[in-house]
Amino acid sequence: MNRFAVAAVATVLIFSPVLDSRLRADSVPLPPKPEANANYLVGGSVLPPGLKSAPKPTYTDEARKHKLSGTVIVGLIVDADGIPHDVHVTRSLSENVKPKDKHAALSLDDEAVKVVEQYRFKPATKNGRPVPVRVSIQVDFRLY
Q1: Of 53, 87, 89, 106, which is the most exposed, with the fewest CB atoms less than 10 Å away?
Q2: 44-55: per-residue pLDDT in tens?
Q3: Contact 130, 48 (CB under 8 A)
């Protein structure tokens, strides 16, 4: 008897959109379209972008000569197609170095921006639709 009840429920679910216009698939409201020009922040219904490709940063000769290592924080917008835009340094490696090493540190900041501009992402989504998001990426430079 249970198999019959399950089959009956399945039949009702499959055919009810035809019988009752309130349940038609095309009448189910879709989530609202995200605003085209908005830059969202990850959280809540906004899921983060996924990294598809990320070339490794290159050490500059000057930074290698000064034996610099550290982290550059890069801010950017990942658009709805997964392309980075407005790539900029939000925390420079040069903030924590001696004045004589500042120029070399800035060369690593520039390299961090260049490499992040080459990143490609799976777009962030809001309610299942791709949206542009503002994110930060940490680019590490280490000498071993």
Answers
A1: 53
A2: 999 999 999 999
A3: no
